[in-house]
Design a protein that fits this description.
With about 130 residues, the chain is mostly beta strands. It is about 0% helix and about 45% strand. The strands form three sheets. A four-stranded antiparallel beta sheet has the order 4-5-6-7, with no helix packed on it. It is globular and about 40 Å long.
Length: about 130
């Protein structure tokens, strides 16, 4: 069934059954507004990532709603998150002017900086 994820100023992430509009999971953990969410696009599990005002990136098990990882390397609000193909890494961008690359399967590892190569980046979001 199609699902929809929302970010909220009350600090929660909610996962809805898009066909009927029913909230299936309420993910609680951020300390402040949540500004962005992203679904994993591959891999063995279905993950949902979120970022927000508390400068953290969180990874949720989209089936259970359980937080499986919290990454705290930013010093400003996290404004965007996006999984790599295969969901092995998670990219986050913050208003602290940094971009970080997080290992999804090894949550205890520190983030890496993306390689300094000029590349065009495009992100498609919308209805």
């Amino acid at each position: 069934r199609p699902r929809l994820a929302t970010a909220s100023h009350d600090g929660t992430v909610r996962i809805y059954d898009a066909a009927v509009g029913v909230c299936m999971q309420k993910c609680v953990g951020h300390n402040g507004a949540v500004y962005c969410v992203a679904w994993s696009n591959g891999g063995a599990r279905c993950w949902l990532a979120s970022g927000g005002q508390d400068a953290t990136v969180r990874i949720w098990d989209a089936t259970s709603g359980r937080c499986v990882a919290v990454h705290g390397g930013h010093t400003g609000s996290v404004l965007t998150v996006e999984f790599s193909a295969g969901a092995k890494q998670l990219l986050s961008g913050s208003d602290d002017n940094t971009v970080k690359l997080w290992p999804v399967e090894e949550p205890s590892r520190k983030p890496t900086k993306p390689k300094k190569k000029r590349r065009k980046v495009a992100a498609g979001e919308g209805a």
